[in-house]
Amino acid sequence: MRPRSLPRRPTQPLLALAACLALIGQIACLKTAIGGGKLDDGVVIAERADVFNSTALVTSKIGQLQKGDKVAIYHQAEVNGLEWAKVQKEGDSKVGWVEARHIVPRQLLDACLALDQEFAAVQPQIGGRLKRETRLRLQPRRDSAVITVLKGGTEFDILLRRRTERRAAITDESENPTTDEADVKYDSWYLARFPEGSIYRVGWLYGGSVEIVEPPAIAGIIGSGRRMVGAIPFGTTLDKSGAALRNYFILDKQIFSNDPIADFDRIYVVRLDPKSGNYTSAYYELSVRGAYPVSYRNDSDTEAAFAVPLMDKSGAVAQVEYTAALVNNVWTVRKGKLPAALEPPRRERR
């Protein structure tokens, strides 16, 4: 004889109760938010950001924000390892919780815009990509304000490198030093510029989280034991198929260099050979002590110029100009006159 199955309990009252509690929670949330006063204004930087009625494990989605939406920020809190912000969209009556990484406070955004203006004249040195999720900071320090958190794989242009003393404790996995850096008391940071249309354009990234992206046409050209840190395109040369390819003013550095101050120690200029379709050397200079940023004029099809900051032994920097010109269909590179401080010592005649 089969046991009787238990009768199903009605679920409608439970659902109604849950909906009622959720509504009460939203109303309470709204009163708390407005009663507590506005902390700041903000802008949504994610393509889409879900808005919830609370930060609890069981919560309800009450809306969605779009990139560029302006919001009022009423409260910020960390719950279960996530940063949250209580916000209200401009022109909307609803107040809810959204992950803080999707919002940039107005004050930070203004500071970010000021940073962009400060370095507006600095030109890209090479491309970069994040190895992992990383915080974008306002200054090259571990204790600096965080503009936003970027996903691994995010790409950008590298403008500068800074080496700063490690004063703050390590609180972020993405800013942990590598095995080689464990005993070093300094951190390397890169100033990154993001594409047009980004709400934040410029910020600092921890160097250990950044992967240098070599232009595909010259990837691997510098050989083992060295690391490319700059690749500035100039001019064009037609290959066998008639495609116009760029030439490159390359900056690189020995991987195990004992000079932590210099950004690069070699200048290597390559030009495309139209007959073979391969890149060949147009200029080569080793044992320099160079520093970002190199400024350049590269919008002509027949000439280009590069102002390279070079350091002497004391660390003093002087600009040295290198010019590239198309002569008889061949790109030729010349170095300008060295400042006196950078000239090698003359040997006395005996």
Output the strand order for the largest sheet. Answer: 6-5-4-1-7
Poorly predicted segments: 1-35
Beta-strand fraction estimate? over 45%
How many helix segments? 2
The counted number of beta strands is: 22
Q: Assign an overall shape.
A: elongated
Structure explained in plain terms:
The chain has 350 residues and is mainly β. The protein folds into 3 domains: 33-103, SH3 type barrels (Roll), CATH 2.30.30.170; 119-210, SH3 type barrels, CATH 2.30.30; 216-341, no CATH class. Helix content is 11%, strand content 45%. It contains 2 helices and 22 strands. It has helices spanning 12-36, 106-118, and strands spanning 40-44, 48-52, 61-66, 70-79, 82-89, 95-99, 103-105, 126-130, 134-137, 146-150, 155-165, 186-193, 202-206, 210-213, 226-238, 244-254, 264-272, 279-290, 295-297, 303-311, 317-327, 330-335. A 5-stranded antiparallel sheet has the order 6-5-4-1-7. The N and C termini lie far apart (120 Å).
Secondary-structure blueprint:
Layout: H1 12-36, E1 40-44, E2 48-52, E3 61-66, E4 70-79, E5 82-89, E6 95-99, E7 103-105, H2 106-118, E8 126-130, E9 134-137, E10 146-150, E11 155-165, E12 186-193, E13 202-206, E14 210-213, E15 226-238, E16 244-254, E17 264-272, E18 279-290, E19 295-297, E20 303-311, E21 317-327, E22 330-335
Antiparallel strand pairs: 1-4, 1-7, 2-3, 4-5, 5-6, 8-11, 8-14, 9-10, 11-12, 12-13, 15-16, 16-17, 17-18, 19-20, 20-21, 21-22
In short:
This protein has 350 residues and is mostly beta strands. The chain has helices at residues 12-36, 106-118; strands spanning 40-44, 48-52, 61-66, 70-79, 82-89, 95-99, 103-105, 126-130, 134-137, 146-150, 155-165, 186-193, 202-206, 210-213, 226-238, 244-254, 264-272, 279-290, 295-297, 303-311, 317-327, 330-335. Residues 1-35 have low confidence and may be disordered.
